[in-house]
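Query structure, 338 tokens:
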């Protein structure tokens, strides 16, 4: 679908560029894609920048104004009360990001075409723009090795959670990329995922909240131990495998999964950057976090300490290790209906 949308947009941009200049901000040609919003390929009059315009009645405008600031791509929100038009204009500001812009444009058109109402479509657009904003900011420096290792570990935990709770619940519970209190949380169950590559004696805990089980019926610490190898799997392969599973069994969860990846700083357009390192799984273990678990929490830390970063020795956690079956029973509750 994305290739067809990109082709349609390219044709419309070429047609708009060939039209005579006028007095409006854009020369625009409508793109024939489904959905409650009118979608147009625009050429900005001031500098001939390619743009994508989404229009609907002013009655469908959200109460809050949207903002989008990212390197090379801009978003302008317009409320024309005289003509009763609400418009979202996404424009390419840097020609070297041309291929990225086409992918963003196709993705936004897909997001806007799924909802049944214009109000829902506008909300979907802003959700996608927020995810792309996070990705474009992270893309400036790319995902470092630690980020790649951490994301790979979270995806492996996501897959294990899906095996016992189902893909919709697993994807819906994945909160790590959005800055959630725990990497996974649903129905009163939390999972904090930590990944080591190479020597796996230590786990870094980056806040006083990560191992705090306040308000939860259970909190698991998932420790994924990876090693680099000449054969195995890489991050794009792991992402692609999950995407195929979602397409086959839970297509409705695909958009949420893609949003989370963007928030984590990953998009398929950069897949070639992450073909290395190649990993193999050494172990995937679960620990039950409770009152006797070695940890620092906000309520148990002396007054005046606002935050803490500390390191756990995995060898000291063996008393809290639970087998995979017991962990699965706990995770299964995350897929139960409320």
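Result returned for the query:
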């Amino acid at each position: 679908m994305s290739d067809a949308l990109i082709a349609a947009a390219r044709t419309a941009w070429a047609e708009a560029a060939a039209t005579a200049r006028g007095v409006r901000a854009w020369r625009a040609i409508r793109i024939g894609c489904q959905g409650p919003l009118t979608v147009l390929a625009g050429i900005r009059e001031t500098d001939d920048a390619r743009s994508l315009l989404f229009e609907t009645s002013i009655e469908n405008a959200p109460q809050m104004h949207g903002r989008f600031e990212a390197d090379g791509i801009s978003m302008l929100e317009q409320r024309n009360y005289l003509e009763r038009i609400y418009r979202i204009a996404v424009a390419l500001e840097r020609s070297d990001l041309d291929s990225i812009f086409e992918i963003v444009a196709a993705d936004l058109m897909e997001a806007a075409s799924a909802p049944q109402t214009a109000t829902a479509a506008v909300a979907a657009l802003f959700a996608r723009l927020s995810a792309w904003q996070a990705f474009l900011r992270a893309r400036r420096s790319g995902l470092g090795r630690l980020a790649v290792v951490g994301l790979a570990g979270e995806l492996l935990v996501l897959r294990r959670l899906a095996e016992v709770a189902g893909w919709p619940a697993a994807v819906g519970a994945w909160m790590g990329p959005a800055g959630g209190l725990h990497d996974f949380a649903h129905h009163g169950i939390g999972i904090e995922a930590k990944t080591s590559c190479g020597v796996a004696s230590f786990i870094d805990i980056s806040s006083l909240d990560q191992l705090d089980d306040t308000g939860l019926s259970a909190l698991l610490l998932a420790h994924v131990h990876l090693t680099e190898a000449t054969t195995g799997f890489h991050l794009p392969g792991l992402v692609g495998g999950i995407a195929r599973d979602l397409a086959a069994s839970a297509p409705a969860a695909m958009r949420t999964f893609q949003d989370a990846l963007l928030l984590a700083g990953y998009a398929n357009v950069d897949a070639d950057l992450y073909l290395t390192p190649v990993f193999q799984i050494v172990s995937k273990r679960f620990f039950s976090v409770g009152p006797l678990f070695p940890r620092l929490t906000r309520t148990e830390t002396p007054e005046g300490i606002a935050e803490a970063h500390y390191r756990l020795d995995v060898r000291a956690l063996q008393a809290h290790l639970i087998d995979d079956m017991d962990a699965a029973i706990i995770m299964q509750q995350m897929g139960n209906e409320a």
